[in-house]
Amino acid sequence: MSATVPAIQLQAVRLAFPARTLSFDLEIAQGGITAVLGASGSGKSTLLNLIAGFETPDQGSVALMGQPMAAVPPAGRPVSVIFQDNNLFAHLDVATNIGLGIDPGLRLSQADRTSIEAALARVGLSGFGQRRPPSLSGGERQRVALARALVQTRPILLLDEPFAALDPGLRAGMAGLIAALKVELGLTVLLVTHHPEDVRRLADQVLFLEEGRILLHVPRDVFLARTDLPEVARFLGA
Amino acid sequence: MRRGLVPGLLALLFLAGFVGLALIALLTADAGLPASSASAAAWFDVTVWRSLRFTLLQAGLSTLLSVGLALPVARALARRPCFAGRIWLVRLMALPLGLPALVAALGLLGVWGRQGVVNQALAWLGLSDPVSIYGLTGILLAHVFFNMPLAVRLFLGGLERIPAEHWRIAANLGLGPFALWRFVEWPVLRGLLPGVAGLVFMLCATSFTLVLTLGGGPAATTLEVAIYQALRFDFDPARAVALSALQIGVTLALLMALRLAAPAPEEGLTAGRASRRFDGAGWSARLADAAVLALAALFVAAPLLSVTLSGLAARPLRLIAEPVFQRALLTSLSIAAASAALSVLLSLSLISTRLAAQARRHRPLSLRLLAAATDSAGSLVLLVPPVVLGAGWFLLLRPFGSVGPFAPVIVILINALMALPFAIRILAPALATHRARTSRLAESLGLSGWNRLRRIDLPCLARPLMMALSFAAALSLGDLGAVALFGSQDLVTLPYLLFSRLGSYRTQDAAGLALLLGLVCLLLTMIGTPATMTSPHRIKEDR
């Protein structure tokens, strides 16, 4: 796949909610982390849902890695997702949770088990395979979810406030991990966040949403300099 | 500082007295019998053991069928979070619980009985061998009619409590129907299974009215019905005592097993919070779900429809004009009102005392015991079924001549006790949050007594109080268990009237009465059920 094809492309996408209509026109190049910002209800999660296939646009089209996605179910898309919480099935152990990313029927070969161990090691949780999610800390659970995204080997990673439930030290560790994986695997990452430091620390690009539209789509440094816009000033000041 | 503890203590004393006296009466009853060998023989009476065996058999089979059939229905319903009429289907599943057993029995007779729709259809098809509703078949049908929808609602609540993220992750991972069942749905359902099955078994093992009307002869008689028959027809107190002891033993064992094996299922009324689902989009899955839901709806709706149609055909307005009906309605309403008020009063006393005892910083053993006693008093009542209570008081009052003058009081008390677990379940959380929210503020403002009751407590608690009252009243209105023993020329309630009309084959009257009784009870239950059921087409999840 040529690197010139955009990883994510939304053309004239419209989606009507009872309260408001969202519209997106958007192109995100392969590789790099794009921070998705905006107030509550501005459409951040809906944007991720459209890309992951959890929402269908009323109009317009979504293409991922150059392929139109209109008829493609969530499982068929080149996308892994991690939410703020509830990423793991609490009654299944860590290795099984990750194994579901390789095969939904859990028919795992020895090579698959090795790659599960490798993914656990990569997120710093070697030997955690037999543990169950309730016995893990919030940060550990998110890293297991990340390990599952690794074994899914999909080029796009969608993160919906993945650090929101973590304290500052863990946030930094998780952020470092994601930055490293982006470089290592050439991932295209979309990161929904409320925190300016995530933008400074991680983002290459910034997508700023307001009332269901894209207000800004600019490189990080340009965004950080746009304090003339009241919305941006309010975000950075918070 | 004994403030706040007195009401609960009084309620406990009252409950202990009422239940205790009945039990003592039962235990000492055979002293007055001519030969003590008679009572010994009664213990080994064939019919006693047959009743026990049948009680357990029918309850086991009913549970198996109700729960087994509820699983696919709940799954199909959870998999289709929005389709036209879903909310009505969920409401339909709530209907049987509010329906008096006698009314449901009549509806089931209309559908499955000898002259019913099913047998007529079979005859039309040339099949001469009719489905017989009397005996085990009928009891099972009736128990599934009542408990399958209940189990569906409990399972559905569990499935709808699965976090929305899990469905998305499952969709992202591409879990198929079997993998979804294995990794997402079944683990939740398995967790609920012991509690739901235990509850259904308990309800079926202590079901009285359905077995009385649909059971066929001594071969299909449960312990409770056998107690009633021993007292009312054979007048054999010794056997009634033996049966009662067995019944208490069975319920005690069940309650203990339930407490050990399974937490009480949460009454998850989450009909509006359905998650978006991404599975089951194929035609075969759609057809399968549609078929399952249509069959379940038909099974539950048909008897209701039958009651309505035959009730309307019986010209209910003519019935309303009859003095017998008016007298029975008045009796029923008075008994229901009194027992509902008593039930709520007892509940409030028990709950407020438990809260007061738990709020103390220093809790000596006596206080902790009091808290535990007030906490479990509600469910302890389940231990002694209404018929056993009635049997005890029947024997206790017999030496004083006719039980007639005491009958209404006993019926009111038994009905109040029957509603106690439900009233407590409705009121306890409401009262606890209300106290937590307002008690400090009210104290700091110096609000107390009548002022506090009028300005703070009643406005905040009006809804749960209303719910508990109407639920308790509906339960009492539809009850036949207590009044079956004590009913007479002078004490005729609506269910008693309906039962005796059925017994004398005045089916026209019975159909009309069933419709009227069903309507009154459903109305009350509807008031008693929270109405926060909205189904947003698209669930907005942007935080």
From TrEMBL, chain A:
- SUPFAM superfamilies registered for this protein in UniProt: P-loop containing nucleoside triphosphate hydrolases
User: Can you tell me which residues the record assigns to a coiled coil?
Assistant: none
Q: Does the keyword tRNA processing apply?
A: no
Q: State the UniProt keywords alphabetically.
A: ATP-binding, Cell inner membrane, Cell membrane, Membrane, Nucleotide-binding, Translocase, Transport
Give start and end of each ABC transporter domain. 5-236
Any one cellular-component term (Gene Ontology): membrane
Q: Indicate yes or no for the key word Membrane.
A: yes
Pfam families with a match to the protein in the record:
ABC_tran
PROSITE patterns recorded for this chain?
A: ABC_TRANSPORTER_1, ABC_TRANSPORTER_2
The molecular function terms of the Gene Ontology recorded here are:
ATP binding; ATP hydrolysis activity; ATPase-coupled transmembrane transporter activity
Choose any GO biological process term that the UniProt entry carries and state it: thiamine transmembrane transport
Report which superkingdom the organism of origin falls in.
Answer: Bacteria
Entry-linked InterPro entries: AAA+_ATPase, ABC_SmlMolc_Importer, ABC_transporter-like_ATP-bd, ABC_transporter-like_CS, P-loop_NTPase, Thiamine_ABC_ThiQ
Which SMART domains does the record associate with it?
A: AAA
Family, according to the entry, reads as follows: Belongs to the ABC transporter superfamily.
Q: What is this protein called?
A: Thiamine ABC transporter, ATP-binding protein
UniProtKB/TrEMBL annotation, chain B:
The source's domain of life comes to Bacteria
Q: Which residues cross the membrane?
A: 56-77, 89-113, 133-156, 192-220, 240-262, 283-305, 325-348, 369-394, 406-428, 465-487, 510-533
Topology versus the membrane: Multi-pass membrane protein
Keywords assigned by UniProt? Answer: Cell inner membrane, Cell membrane, Membrane, Repeat, Transmembrane, Transmembrane helix, Transport
A single GO CC term for this protein reads: plasma membrane
Q: Domain ABC transmembrane type-1: where?
A: 52-256, 329-528
Q: What family classification does the UniProt entry report for this protein?
A: Belongs to the binding-protein-dependent transport system permease family.
Q: Does the keyword Transmembrane apply?
A: yes
Tell me a Gene Ontology molecular-function term this record carries: transmembrane transporter activity
Compartments reported by the entry: Cell inner membrane; Cell membrane
Concerning InterPro entries, the annotation shows: MetI-like, MetI-like_sf, ThiP_ABC_transpt
NCBIfam families hit by this protein: thiP
State the protein's name.
Answer: Thiamine transport system permease protein ThiP
What species was this sequence derived from? Answer: Xaviernesmea rhizosphaerae
What subunit structure does UniProt give?
The complex is composed of two ATP-binding proteins (ThiQ), two transmembrane proteins (ThiP) and a solute-binding protein (ThiB).
Q: What is its main location?
A: membrane
Q: Which PROSITE patterns match?
A: ABC_TM1
Gene Ontology biological-process annotations: thiamine transport
Q: Does the keyword Transmembrane helix apply?
A: yes
